[in-house]
Amino acid sequence: MGVKIYNRTMAISLLTKGGKQGARVIGATGVNVRTGKLYIYKAKATILCMARPTRIWLFSPGFPGTSEFRPLQCMGDGHAMGWKAGVEFTMMEKSLRGLWSGERSFPPYGTGNTHNTWYACSLVDANGKEIPWVDRDGNILKEISQRYRPVKGQKLFLKGGGESDFHLYKYLGPDTLPVEDLLNQGYKLPFYADLPSMSELERKVIWGLMVGEEGKSKIPILDTYTKAGFNPNRDLLQSYGEGWTSTSFLPRERQLFGVPGGVLNDWELKTNIDGLYAAGDQLFASDCVGHAAATGHYAGRHAAKYVKKISEVPIDSHQVEVEKRRILYLINKEDGIGWKEFNMHITRIMQNYCGEIKSEELLKIGLKLLKQMEQNEAPMLHARNPHELLRTLEVLNILTNAKLIIYSCLARMASCKQLHFKRSDFPEMDPPEWHKFITVRLENNQVEVGEKPIDYYGSLRQNYEAYNDDYIRRFK
Fold it and tell me: How many domains does the chain fold into?
């Protein structure tokens, strides 16, 4: 698309007209994480596409690379930048119990689970007894090819199965059955992914293509296991039975997972701020790479249309100077607090005061402690080199995102099943008057709470055609 790439450069703030919060976005600042050089970008339109926040509840200083299921560098910089600029967010109160992260988890894709990347791998128990794949109607599937196909009368199943309130059909197999059910049927732990029993083509697709090309799997899994002697033609790979999870996670250990919250958008994928668009996991109710690719292209088209109508605005020098001083402050210190300790402190606060069961009292204590961190500990952070500068700026953004989440939790004064949101002081689940989107944003550095009806977007077909008529005509 002709986009110029600045590798090894971290975006750190949005620039706005006159340096004012909520004003038109006219560019951004960034810092090179190899040299520490500060960059200033002028833009008629800007698109946020920096994934969702991570390392909010879960972080392992000893194993930072497995602290989150998603890549370590995808931790919500765009959310923090947007929040400070006055962007409106929704559904940020939603979180799920941790599954695939932190010290309790195996490395993502590092065990032979049958979900996602390893789908539809054959599985055997400790005695070598095959765990059968079963279709929706209870029929044992004898051929591997059948595992990929819906049965007669079944339109689809999602990611090979799994149960969810959003799935249209139930699909039973080793990827969905609880471990307890399999144990009750006489299967013995541990379970193993049985690649050797599969055809060469199926084996290569799973181990070479899927495991090799998944985002975090090529170096830590494919390369490391191969160098250690793992041979998919000969060896079984242990999968304890809980997918990537080595043990059950505590209720207070949470993740922003399963179509989480994010930036509120209109039909052009524009935010509430002029000149600013969003795509991918930056958006609320986002869902992985296919969604990111589609929305990225879509946001790019509408941003390109927008820039043809407007003129450039000069950068506010004071706003740039603030960012410059912020960087210099972190690197011009002899010693201080490291980024890992800071991140650990945030996760402990969030586990204790914004876990599975929430209340106004708990949330306000957590918010108070986060603000104390911002006031007392953040000034003590220091970075010894450009790499540590990157990590230090990240944890400051994690602190901002943690506050954003608590503000959102305080704003929804009702429990909600779909959002996995439980408040002990408002235990009624899904009261009708709370069947709506709750929004939060900063205005003059004060939190403003709003709401949107669930169907605020209107007719899908009519609006898509109205906002994309030129694009549709290109393919007629």
Answer: 2
